Amino acid sequence: MIMDKSSNRAEEVSKDLIPGLPSELAMECLVRVPYQFQSAMRSVCRSWRSLLSDSSFIKERRRCGKAELLLCLVQPLSPPTLPVVEEEKSEKRVSGTPRFGLSVYNATMATWNRVALPQQQIPLFCECVAVQDAGKILLIGGWDPETLQPVKDVYVLEGSGRRWRRGAPMKESRSFFACASVGSTKVYVAGGHDEQKNALRSAEVYDVEKDQWSTIAWMAEGRDECQGLAMGTGVGFCVLSGYATESQGRFRQDGEVYDPMTKSWSRIENAWPFPDTSPRGRTVVDTRGSSRLCRFSTDRELQSQRQWESRDGSRKWNLDVEVTQLPTSGSSVYVGSSGGESVVMIGGRRETKGLLMKTTTEKNAGKWSHVNDIPFGFSTLPFSHASIYV
Predict the structure, then answer these.
(1) What span, in angstroms and rounded, lies between the C-alpha atoms of 384 and 279?
(2) Over the stretch 346-369, which tens digit does the pLDDT of each residue have?
(3) Among 34, 214, 300, 359, which is most buried by a count of CB atoms within 10 Å?
(4) Are 210 and 191 in contact (CB under 8 A)?
(5) Cα–Cα distance for residue pair 281/133, rounded to 1 Å
(6) What whole-number distance in Å separates Cα of residue 254 and Cα of residue 239?
């Protein structure tokens, strides 16, 4: 009754969670412990550690209304400076570059903190993606902080335990690529650029449970600085816009959708008619029902078409695009999603506060409300983000 039928392991360990208490009552107690204490809970006994490692524990917290919503942000910890290449022991190393960190905003408790990556710096410009059913946060690819070369690295954070582990590396080094969680256990990546800044056509998929990467069919076009999103009910993977090697900074108006059933790509036209603007940090996708992409923009852009529908050649995939006005002008903004709502982060400098606001992706989209003043040290605009219930 309490646990999902598929979670046999959690059901077994729940039999003796708290000596002297029925398992149902013990579970009612444990799911109410705040997230900040869950790491310590794992050290109490083997049954508690097994329970917190099982995805059904998070599902039960959500069922009881006790789950906490985390917004995870990959952001620079200091203002960027011009890189300086130094020769050291026949290896090129770059100094003066910003360090990146993983910041976490607990939307339930309205608190900010930073999660350390043991003995490592977080790769610059890595992609952050959450796999809710598995209870995991992933950091994928990006640049090596020392050499500024694209990497294959994958870091996995267990949601309940706050413990990092190295995941299986990607097949190919890449940065500024499309990335999205699709389905319950899969993460897709595609495009980006390689060590020579060449736009990539290649794509691959990661099985979170098996910790295994597999190569999938290549896209028709190379796409650097593209945006990834799940399509429909979470079964398709869309790579939006991006640009070719020879046309850097001129963003494509189309996208490509990968269908896991047919293992093939199809083109979706007129999905991003903003050639001078990257889709990264300006889009939110709502996958409840049909896919709806919200493009957040300035007043000037709102004078043009505000809503349209894009379909691929097979007519299987469609994307409803809507333009929504930002609550502020200027470029110091980053738009993302958290718990089904759109959020906009208005950045400040290192010594100033920022602002976090939200709007829903329903019919009243565009009505912004203040969420939180971003404290000193957390207000630099992120490169990537993900949200997860824990």
Answers:
(1) 12
(2) 886 655 677 888 876 555 555 788
(3) 359
(4) no
(5) 25
(6) 9
